[in-house]
Every structure is written in structure tokens, then in C-alpha cells.
Design a protein that fits this description.
mainly beta, Methylamine Dehydrogenase, Chain H, 4-stranded antiparallel beta sheet, 33 strands, 5% helix
Length: 460
């Protein structure tokens, strides 16, 4: 089948698979936008005693995000090793878990345990301890669940937990040994796996069999921790869009070949994900700040004519959110809002602090730049090493006309979109010491929030 047919299939996937329009099938939901179009109301205020529908214990830790498939919630965890940085234990005891819960009451429906491919990146330094070994969010087409487990490969299960296939996509490590976290996505019948750490490649797999269809290699992928998004250029063209050090790329999902590239932020690592709004692509990244808006549908080098605007907006790890032609960025407890048309600042304000920004290592990122080795530019070499500092990792999401942002320490801010910062409420679902580094999922009046210990369902 020609891929242009598969691309069209992606556009009508919901109707073909009989999915609910409220399914949240990948990292940040519909095309990674973080925006739910569900009409159901969502609570502004909630706590352990108010508007908490259920709470389910997880079999391990992790920062991967929950996905919603009809009446099921799927999330990944790890256990056995890396529970304590001071005493991580034995790597041989590491296990991964794929867990499925009932969205109605949080009841455990099934659980799969996976032995790892060893050696893994050690639970030490300033990288892996920030997120552990369950960092890639699963993706689903409504009939199967696809999970990327880094060095332990990619696996597919049906919705009842029966394994369909498994495939290896490499056993390497990123240059800093921070551990990989980019999540897979689906482009029609192709499972797109950003295996930057494992093989310095983006790999396309046949979603039905796990067979490798193509491999797009670049040395710069060793500095990528973001997740791709899809740009629907027209009825026949679909681009995979991914941010990389110094550049943004557009790949052909049929072959993995580069269709276009655009020089972007001067940073030797790309931790966030791009976000797409119609014919515009937005990205923000970099320790010193850097933002860009690009025209979709380019060819070859679009660094000159393809840039709509560029700025110095900060968005260290979380992915931006676009709503009503305003781009919201949250970094270091500061909310920035810029005009999506021209990049001009609308407002900047600080979130209320609950004193709960806990758990991260202190330090700053290394600033070594060893040259480029990407698709669009020439050269080789790799960058330096560093740490993350105290920071949040979740990205904002929007539902029922409200923005929800989860801090690492568990403060859940509810923000009214607009031309000034208006925090409607700051909530907590627990006062226990739990790490909240995962982005929530929104579906049919429920917000699913994952911590290092529990999965929470908040509902009006």
C-alpha cells in the first residue's frame, strides 16, 4: 500500500477503529497537542478528599504518561533497581511493567513484567536518577498497545495483554548516559520509534509485525529526548517533525528520508517536543532560551524562507501548549505567553510556590558543543555532559477551557487561558512524598495523573 493511503488512514483512524473521540492515545494526546476537545466539565478544585474518583497503586516507579483507550488506562513502570540513588541495588533485579487499569474504578485488569536487556545505563550521575527506566509513553491505535523500552526494545500487546510481537532497536546509550525517554508515535501503519540513544536513529516499524521498514540515522539524535509530531501538509503528504540539536527536521514516513530541515535554537540537546497548529510548527528549547515558528510543508533547507519568527523564550523540558493563537510555555515555575503570529510576549508570570519542587539533582547543564552531525548540516562530534537542576518535567495540557500543569512536587496548577496570568487554583492529590514528572491525560471528564507511586483519577 502506498504511504499516501496510510497517511489518509491516520486522519480517519478514529472512525475506522471505532474509538471514542475522547481517547488519549499517545504522549500529550491528539498529535501531541496536549489539548482535549471533550465537552465534559473538568474540576477546577480537587484534593485527596474532593473530586478524586479513585487512586490506584503502581507496581513501580516511572515518569511515562498514562494513555486512555476506551475503558482502559495503560501506563509503564519499573522496579527492582534504581529505587534509591544512595543504594540503587543490583541491576540484574531491574524489571519493567506494562499495566492496564479500568478507567471506571482503577481496578487492575492486567499486568506484564519484562526482564531487561542488560547492561542498562547505571542509576547514577545527573541523568537516569531524574527519570528512571520507564520514561517512554506508550502509543495505541485503539486495537493494540505499543511500548518502547529503550535497550529492551519495542513490544506490542493487544488490549487484553497478549503479546503480539517484539523488536530490538539498538542497545546503545546517549552521549551523556542520561537514559532515553522519547516516546513512539503512529503514522498510519508505521510505528515511529525515536531510538536516538539506542542506535542514533529514528526507526519505522510495521505496526502489525514489528518488521523494520526504514532507519533514519544521525549522530545528533544522541542529544534528543523529545517526541515527534505529525504535520498533515495536504491530502497526500504527511511529515514526521522532530526537534534536534540546532535544527528541526521533517521526515517522510514512508521512507524515513529527510524532506526538509530548518536551523533553529543554538543548543546541543533537545529535550522538549515540537507542537503543530495547522500549517505552523512551534518549538522552544535551550538553557538560555530559544523559540521558533516554522511554516509546514517545506522542501530541503528552509532556514531562510521557512521561519515565521524566532525568539528567546524559555521552555526547558516541558512542551509548549498552543490555544487560541497563544503559545504557553512553562519553565522554572514561570509561565510565558507569546503571540503565535509574531512571537511577541503577551505576559510572563510566576506560579504560586508550594515549596514542593523536590527531588531533582542540583547542577547546571554542560555547555560543551562538539559540532554537528545532522541530516541537514554537515560535520560530526558530540556535546558535553551536565545535570538538570531543580526543575519540573511535565507539560501543560488543556481541557474544558482550562490549562492544567503538574509540578514535580505535586502542586497541580489550574490556569485560565488569556492575556494575563490567572491561576484559578493550586491543588494536591496527596501530601505524601511522590514524584510527579508525568504529563496528565484527559478523557471524557477525567484527568489521569501519574506519580512515582500512584495513578490518580480526578473527576467532577
Amino acid at each position: 500500500m502506498k504511504f499516501k493511503v496510510a497517511a489518509l488512514t491516520a486522519c480517519v483512524l478514529l472512525s475506522q477503529a471505532g474509538l471514542s473521540a475522547s481517547d488519549w492515545l499517545r504522549f500529550r494526546g491528539p498529535n501531541g497537542s496536549g489539548v482535549s476537545l471533550d465537552p465534559e466539565s473538568l474540576p477546577t478544585e480537587f484534593s485527596a478528599e474532593k473530586n478524586l474518583k479513585w487512586k490506584a497503586a503502581l507496581p513501580g516507579r516511572g515518569v511515562s504518561c498514562p494513555i486512555v483507550i476506551g475503558d482502559r488506562i495503560v501506563v509503564t513502570c519499573y522496579s527492582g533497581y534504581g529505587m534509591d540513588q544512595q543504594n540503587p541495588g543490583e541491576m540484574e533485579e531491574l524489571r519493567r511493567h506494562v499495566v492496564c487499569y479500568s478507567r471506571a474504578d482503577g481496578k487492575l485488569l492486567w499486568q506484564q513484567e519484562i526482564e531487561p536487556v542488560l547492561p542498562e545505563d547505571a542509576y547514577s550521575g545527573m541523568g537516569v536518577p531524574q527519570h528512571g527506566y520507564a520514561s517512554h509513553t506508550p502509543v495505541s491505535d485503539g486495537e493494540s498497545v505499543f511500548v518502547f523500552l529503550g535497550k529492551s526494545g519495542v513490544r506490542a500487546w493487544d488490549l487484553d495483554g497478549q503479546e503480539i510481537w517484539q523488536a530490538s532497536v539498538g542497545k546503545g546509550s546517549d552521549d551523556r548516559a542520561w537514559g532515553s525517554s522519547s516516546s513512539p508515535i503512529l503514522a498510519g501503519n508505521v510505528l515511529v520509534v525515536p531510538a536516538g540513544a539506542e542506535s542514533r536513529a529514528v526507526i519505522g516499524l510495521d505496526k502489525a509485525t514489528g518488521r523494520e521498514l526504514w532507519r533514519a540515522e544521525s549522530d545528533l539524535l544522541g542529544g534528543v529526548w523529545g517526541t515527534p509530531a505529525l504535520s498533515q501538509v495536504d491530502d497526500e503528504r504527511l511529515d514526521i517533525v522532530l526537534g534536534a540539536p540546532y535544527e528541526i527536521w521533517g521526515l517522510n514516513p514512508e521512507t524515513g528520508k529527510l524532506r526538509w530541515f530548518c536551523e533553529a535554537m543554538e543548543t546541543d540537546q533537545f529535550n522538549s517536543s515540537v507542537v503543530i497548529d495547522g500549517n505552523r510548527i512551534f518549538a522552544a528549547e535551550g538553557r538560555q532560551g530559544g523559540s521558533i515558528a516554522i511554516k509546514a510543508g517545506g522542501v530541503k533547507d528552509i532556514s531562510e524562507g521557512g521561519v515565521i519568527w524566532s525568539g528567546r523564550d524559555r521552555n526547558r523540558f516541558s512542551t509548549p501548549l498552543i490555544h487560541e493563537n497563544r503559545l504557553y510555555l512553562i519553565s522554572g515555575g514561570v509561565v510565558s505567553c507569546v503571540n503565535a503570529e509574531d512571537g511577541s510576549e503577551i505576559f510572563r508570570g510566576r506560579l504560586p510556590s508550594g515549596g514542593s519542587n523536590g527531588g531533582a539533582e542540583n547542577g547546571d547543564e554542560g555547555n560543551s558543543r562538539g559540532g554537528r552531525g545532522g541530516f541537514g548540516s554537515r560535520g560530526g562530534g558530540r556535546g558535553g555532559f551536565g545535570g538538570f537542576g531543580n526543575t519540573d518535567y511535565a507539560s501543560p495540557v488543556l481541557g474544558d477551557g482550562k490549562i492544567y500543569f503538574v509540578s514535580r512536587g505535586g502542586d497541580i496548577h489550574v490556569i485560565e487561558p488569556g492575556t494575563e496570568l490567572n491561576v484559578l487554583a493550586t491543588n494536591r492529590v496527596t501530601n505524601e512524598s511522590e514524584d510527579f514528572s508525568a504529563t496528565p491525560a484527559i478523557s471524557a471528564g477525567c484527568i489521569f495523573i501519574r506519580s512515582s507511586h500512584h495513578l490518580y483519577c480526578v473527576s467532577q
